[in-house]
Design brief:
By secondary structure, this protein is mainly beta. The protein is built from no helices and eight strands.
């Protein structure tokens, strides 16, 4: 293998891949954040912004990489939330590198079936 030059890596800001689904009147956001531990994940809602921040520890192993496709750094993703979301009913979990956020739509906003008499 030919000789490679290794330069010092700066912490990158990473945008996690995400999916958003409507599941039975709840909005489910799933974000891929490999390497992020629960204590390094922060989810906040301020005004109309839902912000998800996470970080992975720097890789301080000795030696030079020959191939490096995985990155470390700080994850950030933000969403604008409208008034149809109940801000008191937000749940979040982190499992196997996937952060899942469940937003409840306010009852008054949910569609309902009108009975015909």
């Amino acid at each position: 293998m030919k000789e490679m030059t290794v330069t010092e890596e700066k912490r990158a800001t990473l945008v996690p891949a995400c999916s958003i689904r409507d599941e039975n009147g709840s909005i489910i956001i799933r974000l891929e954040m490999p390497g992020v531990a629960k204590e390094n994940l922060k989810i906040s809602m301020e005004a109309n912004e839902l912000a998800i921040l996470g970080s992975t520890p720097p890789d301080n192993r000795e030696g030079a990489y020959l191939v490096r496709e995985r990155r470390t750094g700080d994850y950030r993703k933000a969403f604008t939330i409208d008034d149809s979301i109940d801000r008191e009913k937000v749940d979040a979990t982190l499992s196997n590198g996937i952060a899942t956020i469940k937003l409840q739509v306010k009852e008054a906003i949910k569609p309902r079936l009108i009975e015909i008499r």
